[in-house]
Amino acid sequence: MRYFNKLPGFIKTPSGIEWVLLKKLPLIFGICAAIPTAAILFIYFGNQPVNPEQLKTIYMCLGVLFSICFFVGAAAIGCIVVILMKGPAYVADPYELPKENKKLEQHPNL
Q1: Paired residues of 91 in beta bridges
Q2: Contact 2/91 with Cβ under 8 angstroms?
Q3: Can you tell me the distance from the alpha carbon of 46 to that of 44, in angstroms, rounded to the nearest whole number?
Q4: Which residues of 73-82 are buried (b: 16+ CB within 10 A; e: fewer)?
Q5: Maximum Cα–Cα distance for the chain, whole Å?
Q6: What's the first-to-final CA gap in the chain, in angstroms?
Q7: Residue 12 domain-assigned (yes or no)
Q8: 44 located within any domain
Q9: Residues spanned by the domain of 75
């Protein structure tokens, strides 16, 4: 038994924007994550003690940073799914149905 039988006569779909976006995602993540990270580092390494208003800003920046991680991760998963779907088509081994019993299909006349 061979696994991954390719469908004969399948035409390969050309790649689209998914590869371009997947290659740019690390740059997008780096730029988008640098802004809230810089704000957090500026507050922490300042010479003043952290007050509650600055602590609130830090928490908001952390929320933005985690949101960026989730959005970039979702975009990466979407790109990978599209790349896999555009790949070669595979067929499973045929499954022959059991012999049918015609007597089971006859209904009595009421």
Answers
A1: 5
A2: no
A3: 6
A4: eebeeebeeb
A5: 94
A6: 50
A7: no
A8: yes
A9: 18-86
Task: Provide the residue type at 90 as one letter.
Answer: Y
- Mean pLDDT across the chain: 87
Q: Of the candidates 67, 85, 66, 89, which has an alpha carbon nearest to the alpha carbon of residue 18?
A: 85
Distance CA 104, CA 85 (A): 41
Say if residues 39 and 103 touch (Cβ distance below 8 Å): no
Name residue, tokens 């689209």: 16
pLDDT (0 to 100) of residue 94: 67
Q: CB–CB of 1/93 below 8 Å?
A: yes
Q: Tokens 């602590």 — which residue? A: 55
Detail the DSSP E strand segments found in the chain: 5-6, 90-91
Is 29 exposed, middle or buried (CB count within 10 Å of its CB: 0-12, 13-18, 19+)?
A: middle
pLDDT per residue over 18-35, tens digit each?
Answer: 999 999 999 999 999 999
Domain count, the chain: 1
